[in-house]
Each structure stands twice: as C-alpha cells, then as structure tokens.
Amino acid sequence: MTLFTDFGLAQPILKALTAEGYEKPTPIQAQTIPYAMEGRDVCGIAQTGTGKTAAFALPILHRLSESPKPRRAKSPRVLVLSPTRELASQIADSFKAYGRNLRLSTEVVFGGVTISRQEKALMNGVDVLVATPGRLIDLIDRRALSLREIEILVLDEADQMLDLGFIHALKRIVTLLPNERQSLFFSATMPKTISTLAESFLRNPAHVAVTPVATTAERVEQSVIFVQTGRKQVLLETLLRDPTIDRVLVFTRTKHGADKVVRGLDKAGIAGAAIHGNKSQPQRERALAGFRDGSCRVLVATDIAARGIDVEGVSHVINYDLPNVPESYVHRIGRTARAGATGSAISFCNDEEKAYLKDIEKLTRLKVPVMPLPEGLPAGSAPSESSEPRREQRNGQPQRGRPAPHARGHQGHGQPRSADPNADRGPKRRRGRGGKPAGNGQPQGGQPGGNQQRPAQGQRPAQGQRPAQGQRPAQAKPAAARQDGRRGDGAQVAWLEKSPRRR
Ligand code: AMP
C-alpha cells in the first residue's frame, strides 16, 4: 500500500495532510504524484471527487518549496487553469490548505468580479495562480500578467474547458507559455479532441487513469420516483420532512427552475438557497457557506453552477429535473459520494423525462429502482406552474437531446459563446463519445515506476471487459415500473428510513 510518506514530500506538506485528516493517497494520487515529483508531464483521466486536486497540488508545492525564489510582480511560477470559478476557488483553497506550512502565496482570478483587485494582487507577486481562461486572457491583455516565468502548468477538467468554448483561449495561452515547463493535464474523459489538445500541451507525458464512471454510480444508492411535473414541488417538500435528509443538493435544469424551487421551499418554511449563473459571486459564496455550515439544509443548483462544488457530507442528491445529458446525472449523484463516501440520489421523473432515464440507465448500465410516491401526497400545482416551462414537442414527442431554449441562457444558434462560463448553459449532448468520467475507484492505468499503460482512447472498457450484469452489486430492480411509480406491494419508501453513511 502506498503512503504519503513514500513520495518524499517535504515535511511541512506531510504535516498539512495530517491536519487535513488524509491517511492514505487516493488511487489518482498514488499514480500521479511520483511522476509529477520527477518533473514529468502527466496526462490524467480522473473526475472531480477522486482527489485529483491534491494529486497535482502536492508535488507542485513540494517542487516550489525545494527551489524557493523571490516573488516577481505579474509573474507567477505556477498556473492552474480551471473551467469554472467555483472549481478555481476550490483549487486555490486546496493549495492554501496543503501549503499552509509553507511560505508560498496562491491567488485565484475569474470573471464576474472586478478586475482591479486581481491586478493589484498580481502586482504584489504570487507563486501559484489559479485562473479561468477568459479572465486570464483579459489580465494578459491589460498587461497585468505575464506567463513567461511559468514553471508548472496545470490544465484541469479539459473536457469541460472545451464544452464551455475555451478552445481558442487555450490555444492562445499555450503560445504564451515558456517551452521549458512541466505540464499536468486532467480530464474526466479522453475523446480524440481532448487527446489532441493534450498533445499540444504535453511532452512525453506519463498516462494515469482511474476507473470509469460506473463505479461512482454504483456507490450511490439510487431511486427514481415517477411524478407529474406539477407535483414535484410538493413531493420535494414531503421528502424533506425526513430529518435524515440533512444536507441535500437539489438539481434543476434551469436557473428559473432553481429560483422557483427555493421560493416554494421558503413558503413551506424550509431553509434553502439557489446557486446558478445569474447569482452574483457574493450570493454564491453566501449560499455555499450556509450549506457548508449547516444553516442552509437545501442547496438548489444547476449543473454548471454545481460543477466543482465540493461540500463534504452531502447526504442526498435530488434530481428535481432529470438531465438530458446522461453524464450530468453521474456528475450530479457523485456529489453525494465524495472520496469514497456513499450517499443517496433520488430522481423525479415525469413522462417527458422517461427517455432521459433510459439514456442514464444505458450509460451506467444500472437499472434505477423505482420508489412509489409517498402516501397521501397532496395534489400540487398545475403542470403549467412547474419549475420547467414545457419544452416544445414534435409529433407529441419531447425533443430529446436538445436542451430547452432557456437552458442555454437564450443563446440562439450561431451566437458566439462568451469567454466566461458564468452564464449557465445547457450542456451539449455528447452522443457517441468514447470516454466516460472516471470514478474514485481502483487504478486503471500505469503504475508509478512500473510500465506505463496508456489507457485506450475511450475510457469505457470494451463490452467484453465490462463486468457482467450478474457481477454488479445487486440492484433492486423494479419488477414493473408502473406509470404511477407504485410497486403495488405497499412497500415502504426505504430511503426515507435509512440514515446515510458518512465518511
Ligand atoms: P477532488 O477530487 O480533488 O475534488 O477531491 C475530492 C475530495 O476528496 C476533497 O474533499 C478532498 O479534500 C478529499 N481528499 C482528497 N484526497 C484525499 C485523501 N487522500 N484522503 C481523504 N480525502 C481526500
């Protein structure tokens, strides 16, 4: 078994890890840290929740502490690129936490807040800069920042970068970096477009990976409740009467929907807050802080806003609306199974969303057990008052795979995407993509010091290599998923009685 002490990390870093309560490295850390300590480039397939931030932050902090240099105005030594501001803030927090016993400074810059404070911070000199690409380019254009002294570059969540339209920003950034540098590249998936991007950043990289998405899905106790749109709010409020659902992340597909759910909760006397692209940075931070300290039990989020949110002890994820991109479902439910913890995910599914449920089950290769509607559930409001305005239908069928216009922030086709991902957008449908997000499971790629094993282009194992259905953890298969969601056997709603296990 690998231990943190095996890596040769500086004592102050090991001390910080003890303070964090980390006992042993996660698989992505065990694979990545030795290569990164050697100064090698690394190409990693891992998603948020696997411990990948420490996988790159620890060796970086070690290398900086071993070669101290006076800080130079506008010229950081390390650049970490992140697709969203929430993730950027969390990465910066991690650097600060792991580097608390070192004399190094970390700064985070992203759009949506005034630039002058960021310019001033850079002027004073920083060692580690964490940035979203749009704001980084703005700062370079304003001559507030130079990338000429960058020794180590991290590109995190590369697939999200491309999804959010950052490709041109990245292509420009790479031309501004010194050729002599170490680069660490991470993505949850590795389709051709991403590996091509990786090639432009990396030199003779070591390849590392952790197991695919299904492991996350398997760790989470899942259920689906078939419910009409107009009864979703009242169902949510009914479920929240269960005190074991003590820290719950509720996902809606739209910003409008998130606000509406919070208003409903407020009327029902349940403390909730919404987090999405229309909220200001202080509003987001307040919502997150309340959720973390327990004063706000329910956080209602859209997919993009929730990306990178890292809150420990989320007992439940509730999909108020099912996502039309199946990978988003796995990202969402992974919020309740951080770093090996288990949790529960409950999905509300109306008639239109049944097609999305099918796609999700196909991706995870798991049947989501159906739970009945709680007995005596009040009627709720008419469907027209639901969180989600009805989508256009063609021939009476929902338009699958196409987010509702409002989910794209009213962006029409052909309209340019803004450089900053602060506005929530409906995620692109990613059909036929070979790669799947990695879970927090067992190592899959090359072992440190051993033979490097390049993971196949698509991270999803070939059909023949996948565990047979029978080898998967037993799933309570719905004998007959009746339209009304009732099992007909008077079974109790099991998850209402179970207290979730915590890390
Ligand atoms: P990340 O994938 O970097 O977002 O990390 C997910 C969560 O795992 C964060 O809350 C980290 O603090 C936590 N974490 C990272 N590494 C370890 C470790 N070795 N042991 C325990 N928790 C960890």
Describe the structure.
The chain has 503 residues and is an alpha/beta fold. The protein has two domains: 4-209, 3-Layer(aba) Sandwich (Rossmann fold); 220-385, 3-Layer(aba) Sandwich (Rossmann fold), CATH 3.40.50. Helices cover 32% and strands 15% of the residues. The protein is built from 17 helices and 16 strands. The strands form three sheets. An eight-stranded mixed sheet has the order 3-4-2-5-6-1-7-16, with helices on both faces. A six-stranded parallel sheet has the order 8-13-12-9-11-10, with helices on both faces. α2 packs parallel to α3, α3 crosses α4 and α15 packs across α16. The longest helix has 15 residues, at 52-66. The chain is globular, with a radius of gyration of 23 Å. The two termini are 20 Å apart. 50% of the residues are buried. Residues 383-503 have low confidence and may be disordered. Bound molecules: adenosine monophosphate (AMP). Residues 22, 25-26, 29, 48-54, 310, 312, 338-339 line the site of adenosine monophosphate.
